[in-house]
Amino acid sequence: xxxxxxxxxxxxxxxxxxxxxxxxxxxxxxxxxxxxxxxxxxxxxxxxxxxxxxxxxxxxxxxxxxxxxxxxxxxxxxxxxxxxxxxxxxxxxxxxxxxxxxxxxxxxxxxxxxxxxxxxxxxxxxxxxxxxxxxxxxxxxxxxxxxxxxxxxxxxxxxxxxxxxxxxxxxxxxxxxxxxxxxxxxxxxxxxxxxxxxxxxxxxxxxxxxxxx
Length: 213
Description:
Elements: H1 2-15, E1 23-25, E2 30-34, E3 39-47, E4 54-62, E5 65-73, E6 80-90, E7 98-104, E8 121-130, E9 141-150, E10 156-164, E11 169-175, E12 180-189, E13 192-199, E14 202-212
Antiparallel strand pairs: 1-2, 3-4, 3-14, 4-5, 5-6, 6-7, 7-8, 8-9, 9-10, 10-11, 11-12, 12-13, 13-14
């Protein structure tokens, strides 16, 4: 029943969004950038802690809008389904960051559920690429910094950084207003990467798929 409701909500939001945008996550926090039109990102993460909680994310970009559906499974007696949405308002330029606004957990399903999202939040997020100039050791490439401010479950400032280490390993770290999270990912195919992360002080592992239709 919950799965059916989640699919219906996602479908409805997509149908109403022919001209809007949604920001992609850094790890758990939003960023100022969004998926492009017809881009899809799917991610799975699980932990060996407790009852082996699992998270399934699906993000879809349409024009200037992105919608995210997330399922938190085995975090408690009931699974929790969350739908979020975000609009890109300013694209990144040479001198200015990308800026987006959004709402995480539209229906406030995660409030009190003991999952990685703490409930509804409205936020503004910004992202900016940091060029690596000559003379700097090439140990951290393609660096981007992110930051924002939110309400309720994202009350206060959140920020993070991501970049690429040698051998193609991607590193991301963030402060989500409560905890420091980090993630390592490694591409094993053009659209597939394996991930190891620390979320809310627990270790998770999984995989991500990025493609377009």
